[in-house]
Amino acid sequence: MAWRGPPGCRAPHASRKLKGTCVSVRQTGDMKLTAPTRRLVGWLPSGMLDWPGRLSSTVFLGGCDFRCPFCHNEALVSVPDVPAEWSSLITHLEAKRNWLDGVVITGGEPTVDPGLPEMLRTFTEMGIPVKLDTNGNHPDVLKPLLAEGLISYVALDLKTPFSRYASLTGVAESSARVAESVEIIIDSGIAHEFRTTVYPGAVTLEDLEEMARTIEGGDRYALQQFVPTTTLDPRASAVLPYHPDALHESAARCSRFLPTIVRGA
Q: Does residue 251 fall inside a structural domain?
């Protein structure tokens, strides 16, 4: 779930700089609509990185139940004290919906936001397709959203082999819930991908083939190169990433189970 925007643009109370054109305006009393969420941190007007092949706006929601040490979106782990302006986002989408191909909802973890279903209904009523980025820890939220037809594409981040999920994320029983979400997504028939940030402290190259086996039948598996920049645990930024050749070799082995690509290497 990538946070991207231009130097100098910041989300409310965020410490990270963004790289692209980001909008993060504090709420005022002149909101045109009642905001369905109090977790809106900011949004990017347009880009093609977060939903490959589609020109989309990307919406960032604060708050996450996982505490992965290599997380590069540490500014989004907590719920914002003052959310960004919902009406500004809606005004943008209304003005640009004839040329936008969709909206990406990311975080943080969107499925911990109680306002997520109403937010998705708003975008659906506007005729804007939605891609959801999720850690998969809330299948009870994901399943009804898919059943209601509120999502056009899902990207689930597979963090590590299921046997090590609790120790990595700090959340007990997370492995069973993520495994359930994987099954729900594959069985739903919705367009989707699974992806793993290949952080050496959480995933060995040998693990990747095992992980691919657990998502066999999925549309696509993306191995994402770990970039040692700012991380939730500062020690993680000192970890060297795997060599690109090793990732491509692993992708070839994973492709025995489902189509697999490499990003960022």
A: yes
